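Format notes (please read before filing issues)

Several people have asked whether sequences and structure tokens are stored in separate files. They are not. Every record keeps both together, in the order shown below: the sequence lines, then the token lines. Line labels are part of the format and must not be stripped during preprocessing.
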Amino acid sequence: MLNSLYSRMVITFLAVVISSVTVSFIITYNMYETRVMNELEDEMMLSGQTIIKLYNELEPESLEGYLESVSSIRYNIALFTEDGEASYYGRARQENYADPDDIENVLSGEIHRVTNEDKRLLKNASVGLPFEANGENYALFLKPGINGRLNLIEEALMTVLLSVLLIGSIIYLFVALYLVTPIKKLTLYTSKIAKGDFTGHVPVKRNDEIGELAKSFHTMNHELNNLETMRREFISNVSHDFQSPLTSIRGFAVALKENEFSKERQDHYLTIIQTESERLAKLSENVLKLSVLESKENPLNKEVYRLDQQIRHVFLTHQPQWLEKGIHIHLEDLKPIEWLADKDQLEQVWHNLLINSLKFVETGGEIKAAIEEEEESISVIFSDTGAGIPEEDLPHVFDRFFTVDRARVRSKQGSGLGLAIVKKIIDLHGGDIQIVSRENEGTAFMIKLPKRSGQN
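Then the structure lines:
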């Protein structure tokens, strides 16, 4: 219980408030006590002198009666004789008005003032004046008659401070509960997330830091949910894409083993096994390639080279495919430019984009590559006159294993990883890739690479 945030907040608050109240009381009381004492000392000295002066002027018949009358006004009075006798007037009692040495000093003509040692919350604060009456020397000591009131003020101050402590503590208990409750809810839903449940929603609607924390939690929950969905889809797609060629290979291998076929039929089956094996190897290579690209330990090995020549070379390596389909290639707009980048990775980008176009461009179609130089970047554009992509599928073309038409792509040996690899490589180079496509009109990929990190 003491390890909870709520308990720690309450205990910390109480410790801080109690310490603050105690220190504040001591400082305030001492400060005002000193001020009051200084003023009171001056006032008692003046009053004592006035009492003596009036006695000498009025010459009353009874000294005791005179002092009793004066003491009833404001002060408690003690009168000490040279014989050691003491008389008390007003509410004075036989209490410590002064030490014997102080009394002797006053009887000898000195004045006794309040000292720091005498204060003790005004209980021993007194002044002493030498007083001569009827030919005898006296020591006249005065004490303020407000000790009771000062005690009352002390009690009132303590009552106020304790009330502030009590009321503040009760209010803070609810405030702390108000602050801690949403955190407890977040902790509960975090436990659910740890168990794989991403359906939780914290009902926290606040505009403070806790509200921001709740919003961040919801964003994290949403992203984790999407990541979990992608993970499941990834496993499902990988299993499916691996299972299909494996099933074909196993089926034709069993057929060749258990049956006698003509040489022509055997070659046909072996060709299918070879093709499926190559597709399986390519799929494994792409999965590994994407995994390496997404790892944090994938530095870019940059070097300076001619970007336009690299793209021309990629088209030449695929010449048999586009010649076979009679596709028209346009490379006239590939402007010469030297570039600093990871040559192997960018070559993979051009290969994947060209292979993607070759799949969907029909016989007699066109594929075009161009380089456009701008002030802060260069743009590489791959466009074709292929089948195009439906508008609702455009946001997903760079997702892993996403294909517009899986049955059609399957027949063309697609895995749905090519464009995901392209997107990742462009991101690693600090670039951006956009796609514009319309069904039955064609597709254009526009890649923008920043000059600040790529140009020599």
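For reference, the curators noted about this record: The radius of gyration is 49 Å. The CA atoms of residues 251 and 257 lie 10 Å apart.
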